[in-house]
Amino acid sequence: MIRRSDNDLHSIPGGQLELGETLTQTAVREVHEETGIDIEVTGLIGLYANPRHVIAYDDGEVRQEFSICFRARPNGGFPRTSSESREVRWAEPDQLDELNIHPSIRLRLRHALEEREEPFYS
């Protein structure tokens, strides 16, 4: 988990696809950039979009986001913060209720912990 530097909420690492990357390469890069941890993607948790969840950015851009949430395991690196994360921590499932987490991220975490056979699609 990270504690985001922009809104102080706990979240899972994530970000945008860069030109020339695959989706899994994006996940690996974003997790490393935000946490210092190297990962190996092992599966798909789900595909998420909510028309009622619209994000307004400081620069005036407004958009409806979508996300592809992967399951992964750590395989190297060292935990550290970044410009996007003011805290990086391992959180046990029984600790999640104590953290300030947006409902959309709680849904992804719940699906990950359920270890569904099929990915979630919204």
TrEMBL record:
Cofactor dependency: Mg(2+)
The keyword Hydrolase is assigned to this record: yes
Family matches, as Pfam families: NUDIX
All copies of domain Nudix hydrolase, residue ranges: 1-113
Highest taxon in the source lineage: Bacteria
Keyword terms: Hydrolase
Family indicated by similarity: Belongs to the Nudix hydrolase family.
Designated name of the protein: NUDIX domain-containing protein
Organism: Saccharopolyspora taberi
